[in-house]
Design brief:
eight-stranded antiparallel barrel; 3 helices; 8 strands; elongated
């Protein structure tokens, strides 16, 4: 599975770079632009698990841009989730308000697909027997978010982007626990709220709140 997600990650970026190059060539007389970016804060996510996220965006027309971000989960940091793995894809459309290029404030709509595996460890009590068990979870998430933010030039080529957003996410989770074990997990006052959330199995709808920064390099 890990090999498959890496192959998917590389292929996705290769296809997008090729597509971007094609669009760049077609639009070179219309001030075509490509911005490559990384999300550094994702490498330090102790809750969801660290991930390497690389993306790009290119001009469609005037101040409208198409963007695509792809992420691969890593295991080098200890997080709430044990050994997280998987990938995510985030295509989006962005509209800038400065009237000439991809700098200044913007609004956008973003879709996210995430497929993630991780382990958890909990105490389980069935009848008079209590025991600790490590078990696996799989999560498939679809989300749609409205984003607001700004792209701020640092130099002629380097840029920094900040953003925040709100939307809705659909989560389908699977646990390797039996239904009896899942209902017998022992909760206590010291258990963090986020662990209650990430151990849930089944299908759920939740609000989605998003914020972050990206560092970009502009290609003209």
């Amino acid at each position: 599975m890990k090999q498959i997600t890496y192959i998917h990650f590389i292929l996705l970026l290769s296809i997008f770079i090729s597509l971007s190059g094609s669009v760049f060539a077609q639009q070179k007389n219309n001030d075509a632009m490509i911005i490559l970016n990384v999300a550094p804060m994702a490498m330090l996510d102790f809750f969801d698990g660290p991930s390497l996220r690389i993306g790009a965006e290119f001009k469609i027309k005037n101040t409208v841009f198409f963007a695509l971000e792809s992420g691969q989960y890593l295991r080098y940091l200890k997080s709430t989730k044990i050994n997280p793995s998987g990938y995510l894809i985030r295509p989006s459309i962005k509209k800038y308000f400065n009237g000439k290029d991809s700098s200044g404030k913007f609004i956008g709509i973003e879709y996210q697909y995430k497929n993630q595996h991780y382990d958890l460890k909990d105490s389980i009590g069935i009848f008079d027997m209590n025991y600790e068990k490590r078990y696996s979870m799989q999560r498939v998430i679809h989300a749609v978010v409205i984003k607001f933010g700004a792209m701020i030039p640092l130099t002629e080529r380097f840029m920094i982007e900040w953003f925040c957003g709100i939307g809705i996410r659909h989560i389908r989770s699977y646990s390797s626990l039996t239904a009896e074990e899942n209902n017998a997990i022992l909760f206590d006052s010291e258990c963090p709220i986020q662990k209650d959330f990430i151990r849930q199995s089944g299908t759920h709808l939740f609000p989605d709140f998003r914020a972050g920064i990206k560092i970009g390099f502009k290609i003209k």
